[in-house]
Write a structure and sequence with these properties.
- It is built from eight helices and nine strands.
- By secondary structure, the protein is of the alpha/beta class.
- The chain has one domain: 3-Layer(aba) Sandwich (Rossmann fold).
- The strands form two sheets. It has a seven-stranded mixed sheet, sandwiched between helices. It has a two-stranded parallel sheet with strand order 4-5.
- Helix 3 crosses helix 4.
- The longest helix has 32 residues.
- The structure holds S-adenosylmethionine.
- S-adenosylmethionine (SAM) binds next to helix 3, helix 4 and strand 2.
């Protein structure tokens, strides 16, 4: 195990033991849940900055406008719209589709500037209620809505998966992740697309498996798969972004078809489990990689995530320092 991960795991144990840290985390949650209009603008600007950092780090995910080449993007969980807004401003001929929970159902407001809204189509939909595959059970009473046409076309140069369960939506996180992955697998271009996906807890087996999948689907070149924690993000939290380039292009289409089929099956299973809870179960993602494959991926996984763990550790250390807690000597 890398030293970065060892340090982080020790610090995470301290987080659970330190009541000041626990109350700090719950204060942050209350602030996020009761966002005022000013705070919504603040988050919008912050998200725009985060995407700029992702773009700079990954050199680049958004090209400047080129009259000979369209640039289309799909932004899942797009509101308030900071990411889309950055893309529309950087590439002046880009066009995009955003999907986000309707503010009337508790989703974030759509704050994209009116001057660029003509290049952006917003679809207010609950992604967990989209019929992203054909359920085995009857369609009539499944409570789902058909996928809009925009989510069935293989035309996006860039696909963002940033839909994130709000605290007022219980028990939907796994379904939200799976549905976004299915939409991504259905909408990449034959020439390959860039995928930016929010993930968390890089050390867990399920995240390691998702990174393995992105590695299998991305181009066979250096830096086709990256893990990055923007410094504008909540640095104490375990979230980060995976950036994968060339997803689904060339020979990788075979892998893509395999993953799509299995994710659709998992989605159907999730629907059938309505009453028994819909969190990920330990073997739900086992189809992505066998234990042997995961072990072989181990070294790459540690290298890929070292900076993510380091950034989170440094943030936790400075938070503890602000509480005037004494550090253990070995950290
Ligand atoms: C972290 S925010 C995304 C911020 C966005 N990337 C930006 O640039 O401003 C997560 C978004 O996911 C949306 N969301 C949560 N659950 C959803 C669902 N079931 N369907 C669609 N959107 C959802 C939330 O409303 C919120 O707008």
């Amino acid at each position: 195990m890398s030293t970065e991960l060892q340090t982080l795991l020790r610090l995470k144990q301290r987080v659970y033991r330190d009541p000041r840290m626990r109350s700090h985390i719950s204060e942050q949650q209350v602030t996020a849940d009761t966002a005022s209009d000013d705070l919504a603008q603040f988050w919008f600007k912050k998200m725009r900055k985060i995407f700029q950092q992702i773009d700079d780090y990954a050199k680049w995910v958004v090209p400047f406008a080129n009259a000979e080449r369209d640039f289309r993007f799909l932004d899942l969980g797009c509101c308030p719209g900071g990411f889309s807004s950055y893309i529309l401003a950087k590439n002046k001929i880009s066009t995009g589709v955003g999907v986000s929970l309707d503010p009337k159902s508790g989703g974030h407001a759509y704050l994209i500037d009116e001057t660029v809204q003509d290049r952006h189509t917003i679809l207010f939909r609950d992604i967990t209620k989209l019929r992203v595959a054909e359920p085995a059970v009857t369609r009539i009473s499944d409570g789902l809505v058909d996928l809009p046409d925009e989510l069935t076309r293989r035309e996006y140069d860039l696909i963002i998966l940033d839909g994130h369960q709000l605290r007022n939506q219980k028990d939907k996180e796994a379904l939200l992740v799976i549905s976004q992955i299915i939409i991504m697998l259905k909408t990449t271009k034959a020439a390959g697309s860039t995928v930016v996906m929010k993930l968390s807890n890089a050390e867990t087996t399920s995240t390691k498996r998702l990174l393995f999948m992105l590695d299998m689907l991305s181009a066979d070149k250096p830096r086709s798969l990256m893990a990055y924690k923007p410094y504008k993000m909540h640095r104490e939290k375990a979230t980060f972004y995976a950036i994968a380039k060339g997803v689904g292009g060339g020979k990788r289409q075979q892998h893509q078809a395999y993953y799509l089929k299995h994710f659709e099956e998992l989605w159907k299973k999730m629907l059938e489990r309505r009453s028994s809870g819909r969190e990920f179960r330990s073997d739900d993602l086992a189809f992505i990689a066998s234990e042997d494959e995961l072990e072989l991926f181990g070294q790459k996984h540690q290298e890929l995530c070292a900076d993510v763990w380091k950034v989170q550790s440094e943030a936790l250390l400075s938070r503890f320092a602000s509480f005037e807690t004494t550090y253990p000597k070995d950290l």
